[in-house]
Every structure is written in structure tokens, then in C-alpha cells.
Amino acid sequence: MKSNVTTNRQTAQPVILISLFIGLLAVSFSAIFIEWSSAPSAVIGMYRLWMSVLLFLPFALKRWSEFLKLTLRDVFLVCLSGIFLGLHFLFWIQSLKETSVASSMIIISLEPIFVLIGSVAIFHQKVTKTGILCMLCAIVGCVVVASADFGKGGEHLWGDMLSLIGTLAVSLYMLTGQKVRGTVSGTTYNVLVFFVAGLVLFLFNIATKTPLWHYSGRNWLMFALLAVISTVLGHGLFNWLLDTVSATTISMTILGEPVGAIVLAYLLLGQPVVLLQGVGGVLCLIGVFWFLRTNPSHQPNNEENPPSQEANAADGRDRPEGFDASGA
Hints:
The protein is mainly alpha-helical and about 325 residues long. It has one domain (about 35-315). It has helices at about 1-35, 40-60, 65-70, 70-100, 100-110, 110-120, 130-150, 155-175, 185-205, 215-240, 245-255, 255-270, 275-295, 310-315. The termini are far apart.
């Protein structure tokens, strides 16, 4: 019996590794699809989110009873979470229009650090000395990355700032989501939050009189690729893999997204990486990698913040707190 189990694991291992690579490649293409689109940032984000809603909706409707269980508090938190996610896409996508893929993606990798800071402030989560060193290493790395953009003009620095604001917004989205994820499954939560986030961007477009239609076929293709490949295939594949691998493994893999995006930007967009960006990027990624390896809140089934049994039963798997199919 033990021999059969070992054989099954050995057979599944290549499938898992290939799936992790496909998921990483899919999310890494997110920045490339945005760069290939000439549409305004809020339009790109709106259609990416709403197209993703349409793709997730058939699965969410199978759990329609979860919608009926939502309390007024849950609805408020879903709306608040959606607002933060909408702001994240607004600022982060615009950052890619202003600065390089390398700078924007390295800065957004700070998200786990900001989530930890928020958890300390809101949930009184304890932070170790090692965690503080990780944060300092990552922050220093981002400062070095930003310093590389000083000689490129104010536009690049503004892009770095937009990426930082977008990272703060997605961190608040993750923290808010922790309060409501015990009520609904991941698919239902994503449908609700994605719809609200898309609505935020829709209202922004209306307020700024940004055209909602009359975009080229290339732009509509990019909207669809962002939804199908980067959101559903990329992050959705990571969600599916949580059945067989730990949340830490997923976190480590997603950490490779900035690296993948930078390599793709070099190959497909001709964007070189200067020395300071490389040094700062390495420092930042080491800090975040070290943090994810040592911070217990990123381990599955954590005792301090155990995933809700009801949500796990509805989803058919154990999920780490706040993990979902959003992200960059």
C-alpha cells in the first residue's frame, strides 16, 4: 500500500510542477497584456474584472445559497473589499503606463509585508525580529529600485508612487477579505468582489468621461486575455493546486511573478533592467521570500487564524486566509 502511495506521488509531482509553471507564466503575462493595450487604465481594469466575473459566475451559482446567507455586515465588507481592489487595479495598471514593468512589479511584491503591518495594527498579530528584518530588507530594495528611476524623469517616479499606492490598496483588500471569507467560498467571494471592483472603475470612467466603447480589436483581445489567462487560468490554477500543495508553495511560486514579468518585458517589450533595478529587485525579493518562509501566518491551517470550516467545506479544500484569485 505504501509503495502505491509513493508511486502516485512520484507520478503527480511532474504534473504539479508543470501546473505551477503554467500558473506563474499566466500571471506574469498580466503586465505584458496591459502594456500591449492602449486603452485607459480604468477601462482595462473594469473589463478584466467583469469578464472574470462572467467566467466565475457559473461556478458561483452552484453555491447560490451562500448569497442568501450574507448579512449586512458581510455585504458592507464585500463592498469595502471591492473598493480597495478597484483602487488597486486603477493605480497599479496606470503605474505600468508611467514606469517600467521591472519597477512596478518589484514594488508590488511588497504586498505580503504591508499585509503583515496591517495585521499587526488591526488584528494585533505578533511580529518577530526576523519579520522586521525581512521588511527592512524588502523596503530598502524598493528604495534602491526607485532611486534607479531618478535619472529617468518625474514620470517614472510618479509611476513608482502609483505602484506603491496600488500595493497599499491591494493589501487593504486582503485584510478586509479576511473578515468575510469565513462566510462564503472563494469562488463566490471573487464574483462579488470583482463585480464591486469593476463597478468602482466603471463609476470612475463615467466621472472622468472616459469612453467605454470604440476600442480596437487588439484592446478587446487584451481585456479577454487578462481575464482568461492572468486571472482565471493563472490565479485559478493556483487555487486548484491548493488541493495538493501547501499555501507556502503557492506563495513562493507567486513571488516569481515579478521575475517572470521582468523577463517577459525584456524579451517582448525590449525593456532592459538597469543595475540599480537589479540590485534593488534582488534585495526586495529576498526580503519577501525570507518573510514568507518564516512568517507562520502564511502556513496552511494556521492555529492563530484557522480557515473557516464552513468555507472549506463549501470550497472542498483548505485555503490560506485571504488567498483568492485576484492579485496583479
